[in-house]
Amino acid sequence: TKCVTRNIQWTTGNNFTVERGRQQIEEAVSTWEVHESWLHWSEFLREEELKYSKRYHYRVCWSMPTRRKPIPRATASVYFVIEVSKIKPATLPVEVFFTLESSELIHRPEQCQFREKWLKDIIENKIILMERL
């Protein structure tokens, strides 16, 4: 089956700011099909200077609090990188990638449909590990 993704229009290199990047990540995350009981917050982590670009690292932390357990036992993080090129025209959109906590697979928002199961798997694995310890 073909995956349908809802894309957002990423800002251009010359219009990029750290806060604009965080807002656009929030906008992208809002298009993901996750149950309404999932809550998340996002934060800027750091800036990375490379030869041909600058990378801005963000984290979106997910949890599913309940009435019985308002403080969740575990959370799942999704790490975003927004890359602003130093050599491409500044009028082009920034490049955006994300990875899941405990995974090295790099996803592009426009090429990948996010799956709620990924968050559930991270949290379930953490809880299993905590119970074993």
UniProtKB/TrEMBL annotation:
Q: Which keywords does this chain's UniProt record carry?
A: Kinase, Transferase
Keyword Transferase applies: yes
A Gene Ontology molecular function term of the record? protein kinase A regulatory subunit binding
Q: This protein's superkingdom?
A: Eukaryota
- Any idea what this protein is called? A-kinase anchor protein 14
For this record, the Gene Ontology CC terms, alphabetical, are: cAMP-dependent protein kinase complex
Pfam families the UniProt entry points to: AKAP28 (PF14469)
Coiled coil (residue ranges): none
Does this UniProt record's set of keywords contain Kinase? yes
